[in-house]
Amino acid sequence: MGVCSIWLLMVLCLLSTLKIVTASVNTCRYPNVKITTQSSNHSDNYPSRKAVDGCTKQTFDEPYCCSHTAPGLQQAWWQVDLEGPIVMEYVRIYYRNETEEQKKRFGGYQIYQSNTSDWRVGHRCRIDRTSTSKELSFTQKIRCPGIAQFLTIYSDRRSPDRSWYSKKAILELCEVEVYGCPLGKYGKGTCESDCAAGCANSLCDPVTGECKYCADGYYKDGSLCIECPSNCNDDVCDVESGVCSACTPGYYGRHCYQTCLFNCKDNRCIQSNGKCKDCENEFFGSSCDECSSGCTDRVCDKISGNCSPCKPGYFGDTCNTSCPSNCKGDICNQNSGLCTACKPGYFGDTCNTSCPSNCKGDICNQTSGLCTACEPGFFGHNCNMSCFGHCNNDECQQNNGTCIACMNGYFGLDCEEECGQCSDVSCSRSDGLCLCSNMTHGTCGCKNGWGGTHCTTKNEISISDDQTETHAGVGVGIAVGVVIAIGLVIAIVVIRRRKRLPKHKDNQRESSSSSNSSKTMGNVESLPIPLGTPNQQRNNGDTRSEDRQVYVNVHNIDPKTDNDVVYNNIDVTGVPIHELRSIIDSKLENKASAFQVEFQTFPWGAERPHEAGKKTSNKPKNRFKTTFPYDHSRIVLDTNGKDIDTSYINANYIDGFENEKEYIASQGPKPNTLDDFWRMVWQVNSGKIVMLTNLVEGRNVKCHKYWPDEGESLVTQTFELKLDRERTYAFYVIRDISITLKKTKEERQVHQFHFTTWPDHGTPDTYELVLFDRRVTSYNTPLTGQMIVHCSAGIGRTGTYIGLDALLSHGKKTGKVDIPRYIRTMRTGRMNMIQTYEQYIALHELLVEGFNLQESLIFRVNFPAVLETMCPTNAPANQTRTHREFKVLKTLTPNYSLSCFKAALLAENMEKNRDKAILAADKYRPFLQSQLPNMTDYINAVMIQSHTSMSGYLMTQFPLVDTIDDFWTMVFDYSCENIVVLGKPPEKEAWLREEGGGFAAGNSISVKKLQDRSPNTELAIVDYQVEREISGSETIRIFSMSKWSSNSLLPPSDSSLLQLLEQLDSRRRSDNTRPVVVMCRDGCTQSGLFCCISNIRDQMKMDEEVDIFQITRQLKKRRPEALENVEQYQYCYNILGLYLDSTDVYVN
């Protein structure tokens, strides 16, 4: 059997269960009439093409609707070429119906499907075996499932099966209709829907689109062909179950959804259990646990984890036990853990015993503990006895305490005896004789007036009478001197006796420490900070070193002395925030290699103990197998009863700049940790939760929904929760959640801030996240606990956001930021905070955006006063607040390069742009999806955010003659039901004009006017029924301000504009997910102002506050040419004031 026939038989399995319904098309005539042939012709009036001319009349009279083969032949056939593979559903035959003879000719007909004109090698899908001619109908509807390009009807009279058949083969076919769809298409009577990409060979049911077989890379799930799990190796999986035959590196499990351990070599693990096939360096075992931090260079045996050798400070097979703390150089025996030597001051095998307090240099014998030498003033094996006598420098023999030398003025073995009145205040130690400078002894060694062997005898003085008075005076002086000398001697004796008392070194140390305590420098980093002279310090309460970028706060300075100055809190480091932009630009060079290198210097993986997270009972509570909370900083929950495991949650405290435990970083709740999460919120008294992930991203569940829907309650083991209010914005959602402790009925309200546009492992729009952070920080709550931040794992997006919040606040206060330092701070609290170098770069960009963010938010109650200051009449126009704001606004408007407009600048698209200076950026343009043949997907339009939706408006130009079809394609592709028209297009370019009771609106578009709702002549509101052949019909409401001239920056009527906004808002309440088309002549000047005012009004109405500056900037980010005139910017303020006046919402 031929390949084609085998293929057709396979298709029969798919189509055998089809019900005959009119969902496909007559492919003989759609989309064009097909070519036919037949075995012979009766005459020129009855050629083969008559069977596909659309005429189902079954008689031979004019206009000759039937084909007719020549008579007198044994075989006859008729064939249609369908010009490509058709998935056939059924065939309808209209045979000539005039006499009974026609039934005899028709009987026994056969139908063949083939992929070539040689129908004989094709597949026969039908042979008529009607018993009698009476039973045979002239109109036949035959199920004929299969795929073929040619369909052939055949009559064979060589060996007829029935006696009532005609003797000769004649075919008289008035019409043949082959119903089905081209291969790859299905359904809706037009076959315009594409079969799913997963259908094998693009084959699907022409009615339902259901795939029978799935293509490579897909598997069957009910009626759908689902892509094999994204991590299947080579996209190969079981066609029935979707189980991967193998996983790509980094994943394991039946569907390869689970992540291999981080440390598997080449990221490969065993598919069935996730255990590593081999480990990266520094890891070991089937789970690739980290080699002990005590291994030298983190190198250990790949199987056992044993190390050789250990680095200083550790011992044991795996070097995971600390050496005794007093080992010298932190070195101990790897097997026993005994110290090889001790630090000064300790002895013993483990150096855990203190040396005697007076050992010299704190050194004693490691085994016995005996001092090898003593400090001055002490002797003995343990240096616990004071030296005898008056030893020079307090030094004596260690074994017996005798002085090595005597102090001046003493002699004797124990240096206890005092020398006489020696002139050099020294004498021989052995006999006490005074010493002379030439080392001889005798009277030359005595002081004047003293003599004797030891200079202890006072010489007598003879005084004459005439010298009495003089000597009497001298005598009195001497007497006084003697008294003073005696006093000095007594003082010296007392002091020296005190010195001979036993001395205690510990007391000396305490005294020394006490006396110096007032000179301690507290909390000072070891940086060379120029503090200046003491006087300068007293005069300058705050000393800075710009070179080191360190701020010094000086406290408790005593103006009388500089000995008690204490320097504290030297902790502000980093770079000035005004230099941050240039630093980023330099690091982005060479594909951001500087950022990548810098990011790799941060600690990665589990750097600190995390035993609680690895417990078997706690592992199911972890969302990821290798992301654990550090033990020292994890949130320890109050236990439920005596179950210690109920204290565990995968979350950590993160320090801020001014406060420890400023934030909590957490993984996203799982079904089995939902109650734990709310127990944490309750326990820390948190009032704010920041959520940075969506519940499902792609096909992966990122977080369990831990709040109820509005009007419903969610009950956990401990709490009952209710959603009080939910407000949806363009890129975030705010939820007010009431949480009630079931046990006590105490109730609190927690605010959840859910950022919805951050991709996993990716980076957010910096401007949007900074605005989101402003909203979070400005929100007040009476609950004083930490803000809880989570994404999925609680490390990547969570770390980036906490970094933004902390550094932004600190930088605004100090003027500087130290990003690497704070990342290390975060990673001290939780592993891998900020997960990728792209997120690291994003943090830098976020901070630049945050520091540049203008403080321009205005509360409703303050708006009247602000409005008066914006453009006072007595100030020059270029010096008003409006002008200053607008000037800043223009500096922040992006200047896109030509590479951002690739589609707009293509040759085939250039003429689609009305103004060549106003183009649609690729990043923000809508892509046409159902455009007419030979048309591109480009239209000069941009998607603009509304206050509540990322796709609020489609801002576009008036259609050109050649882009009207593109315009309606966009309307239908994006399901738009509202169009705002600002101005009036030229007559020759009218995209919707009335013609003879109908409307012209481009090719294949029909328009019917339904209802005119116009409130006045300045504002037209009309409903139309718009139908497009390939897209169906929509009821579209068109709002027109035709009197707003394209040459006018401002609308002609403020009241009409406000009325238009009110009417449009009312229309959008039912469904605000569909974008509103807003157009003007250039798609920018009037449209930009309208969209800006609409968002301004919506923000004030929804939030009781407005930020006109940021809303305008957000719009200009997507359409930089919008609001280019300060007059329009001022008008935004003025029209909002009129709106508030009209609704009487000013608050006194």
Automatic annotation (TrEMBL):
Keywords: Hydrolase, Membrane, Protein phosphatase, Receptor, Signal, Transmembrane, Transmembrane helix. It catalyses: O-phospho-L-tyrosyl-[protein] + H2O = L-tyrosyl-[protein] + phosphate. Gene3D superfamilies: Galactose-binding domain-like, Protein tyrosine phosphatase superfamily, Tie2 ligand-binding domain superfamily. GO terms for molecular function: protein tyrosine phosphatase activity. Residues 764-841, 1055-1130 form the Tyrosine specific protein phosphatases domain. InterPro entries: EGF, FA58C, Galactose-bd-like_sf, Growth_fac_rcpt_cys_sf, Prot-tyrosine_phosphatase-like, Protein-Tyr_Phosphatase, PTP_cat, Tyr_Pase_AS. Residues 595-850, 882-1139 form the Tyrosine-protein phosphatase domain. CDD domains: PTPc. Its EC number is 3.1.3.48. The keyword Transmembrane helix applies. Residues 1-23 form the signal peptide. Residues 502-547 are annotated as: Disordered. SMART domains: EGF, PTPc, PTPc_motif. The keyword Magnesium does not apply. It is an enzyme of class 3 (hydrolase). Pfam families: F5_F8_type_C, Y_phosphatase. The chain crosses the membrane at residues 472-495. SUPFAM superfamilies: (Phosphotyrosine protein) phosphatases II, Galactose-binding domain-like, Growth factor receptor domain. PANTHER family: RECEPTOR-TYPE TYROSINE-PROTEIN PHOSPHATASE (PTHR19134), TYROSINE-PROTEIN PHOSPHATASE 1 (PTHR19134:SF449). This is protein-tyrosine-phosphatase.
